[in-house]
Specification:
The protein is an all-alpha fold. It has one domain. The chain contains 8 helices and 2 strands; from the N terminus they run H-H-E-E-H-H-H-H-H-H. A two-stranded antiparallel sheet has the order 1-2. The longest helix has 31 residues. It is globular, with a radius of gyration of 18 Å.
């Protein structure tokens, strides 16, 4: 029951993050800059260390977590290129076609393929939140201080998850209703994950491989799509500062939690 209460706290912070992402007005470039920093922080200070610690297996001397990290990055790169989202010619830099549409003035609408990719990316974040809830439940069963550490980390960074879920959904051209629905799913996911731990547990090996893969997935989104989009129309020192601030925020959250 304690795990479900903690997971409910994660649900609240996820919803707050989604709400914050919706109410930014014309400061979209600042939102994207912050989102990229949050995602980079989650990858570097949360997902990758956890993946390497959870699964210590190696292949040709390389940790399996890092191999899955590369696989996650490359899989999304191949998928995105396959649906021809990026159309810039060599030597050119043009605004992406998957701009966050806000109505008639939202710019060129994204293709259905681009919207689908946005839903897949947001769905991956929902899956991550499910595993957050699972981690809460597993740590609660382990007892000691582990449960408290995991709870603090999850509740704090689920604000970023809710923020990023809405931002990514809209970035790829999906409408506001879809964004809200994905945030809702992201908010419910920790509760579902915590509830599942009452029945069974996921092996450390599978969990470590997933975390590595998901880290590569997020890194590609942050560096290939979100950061370029943030600086295309409004190159700004404030945007850069928010990216650094987002990464630093996650570092502080994870550091204090541990």
């Amino acid at each position: 029951m304690t795990a479900l209460v903690v997971a409910a706290g994660a649900t609240v912070t996820t919803l707050l993050g989604g709400w914050a992402a919706q109410h930014v007005g014309d400061r979209r470039h600042l939102v994207l800059g912050l989102a990229a920093g949050l995602m980079l922080g989650i990858v570097c200070f949360d997902l990758l260390p956890e993946a390497l610690e959870t699964d210590r297996g190696e292949f040709f001397g390389v940790p399996m977590g890092l191999l899955m990290f590369a696989a996650g990055f490359l899989v999304l790169h191949v998928v995105e290129r396959s649906v021809a989202i990026h159309r810039a010619h060599e030597g050119e830099y043009r605004p992406h076609t998957h701009a966050m549409a806000t109505g008639p003035a939202g710019g060129q609408s994204a293709s259905e393929a681009s919207q689908g990719l946005g839903l897949i990316a947001a769905g991956a974040l929902v899956g991550h939140s499910f595993l957050d809830g699972f981690a809460i439940g597993a740590a609660s069963q382990a007892g000691g201080t582990t449960g408290t550490v995991i709870a603090v980390a999850v509740i704090s960074h689920d604000f970023a998850d809710g923020f990023n879920t809405y931002t990514i959904t809209r970035l790829y051209g999906n409408n506001r209703r879809r964004g809200i629905m994905l945030v809702g799913a992201d908010a419910i996911a920790p509760l579902a994950g915590a509830a599942v731990t009452l029945a069974f547990t996921i092996s450390d090996r599978i969990l470590g491989l997933y975390l590595g893969f998901f880290a590569g997935f997020l890194l590609y989104l942050a560096t290939s799509d979100i950061l370029p989009e943030a600086h295309t129309s409004h190159p700004s020192r404030v945007t850069l500062a928010l990216t650094v601030l987002g990464a630093a925020f996650i570092l502080v959250v994870i550091g204090l939690a541990r």
